[in-house]
Amino acid sequence: MPGGDTVLFHLISALLLLLSVATQYAWPEWLQLGGAAPLLSLAAVLSIGLVRGPSAGLVAGFFAAYLSASVGALGMGGQFITHIGIGLLAGFFRSGLFSTRITVAIIAALIATIATSLINLILAPPPEVFSWLRLTAMTSIVTALWTIPVFAVFRAIARRFSPDTGEY
Amino acid sequence: MALCLLAVILTFWQHTARRGGRDSAPERLAQRVVWPLQAVITSATEWSHDVVVSLTRSRSLTQENRELREQVDRLEAEKLQLHAYYLENKELKDALGFVIAGDAKGVPARAIGRSSSPGGTMLTVKSLDGRTIEAGNMVRTQKGLLGRVVTAQKTVGEVLLVSHTDHAVPGVVQRSGDQGMVYSLESSDYTEPLLQMEKLRGEADVRVGDIIVTSAISEMYPPNVPIGVVIRLQTAPASSRTLRAVIKPAADLGKIDYVLVVRGAR
Predict the structure, then answer these.
(1) What is the CATH number of domain B168-254?
(2) Disulfide: which of A26, A87, A162, B141 matches B41 by Cβ 3.0-4.6 Å?
């Protein structure tokens, strides 16, 4: 990837990350599934990690956590752990088999959402376990569903600026 | 490593700021960047929602509108039908008002045909309520005498009209009581069917405008049924001592629709 294209890719990725965080916290009620909104920032970090590798995933995770915690009034510690961790792990899968398949992204999003919920459960235990379980399940499903367009966008951008990003 | 260190610093900064009940400077910076974007997204999603709702309601409104239009069409057709019934009823009431008032002898009937005979037009009537019509029955409208049934088959009868040359009825001038015979007037001077009253004595008191009714001496008709109105007085051609009164029939012979067949008139 030429230098100019790399800069452009990072710029577009940053803008999309910003957009995903803004959309996540402006998610309309009529689009919620069982009262759950998708974790778009997580889906974006996961997608960047899968298409661009661990370094990009780590940086994306850092910025997504920072923005998400700032806008959502959440604890930064937990957000950094989950987002950076997921970006990094997704990046490690980049060179794996079928890493650019959407189905892989969907499964990864399901696991990532559940993992995030578990970490949040440890850091900030909810008052009711059953409602937490229901919300976690719904959030996982809706995040996995919305990962499809998010991942498709990031994969298309990566292919545009880095033609070698293909399916294995 | 640098990012991890930065993450720790930011986390610590946030904790410190929150202890003081406010957001940290990096948080405020992020909020300044993201919030305007959030506002745009919120407006866009609300607009989209409104559009979706409008489209959904538009469909249902279109459907409702279509159903209402069909209902209006049905009601309009019913209204027209009811109006036709109203007019028919009104016409019937106008024609047979006295029947509705309670004349049990009358059989309401409708003119269903006309036929020509050497002496004039014959009228065919059909009972409306299924009661039979008999030969000799008087036929009239609310306004006056039409004639009598000469042949009948169950509910259908053929009527000899007062304007027919074979028809004659004893009449009486309602005002003076003078009597005479009422026949059809055959004259090319008149376009409408007219009657004449003859055998009036020279000194008979009859004037233009007098009402002629059936006489009590008639064997065919009950007394006091209006026959017509005197419109002209002439000297009878046979004798200068007798008068002839030209009578315009009380019933409109040119427009006969509903009639009353009076059974057992005499």
Answers:
(1) 2.40.10.350
(2) A26
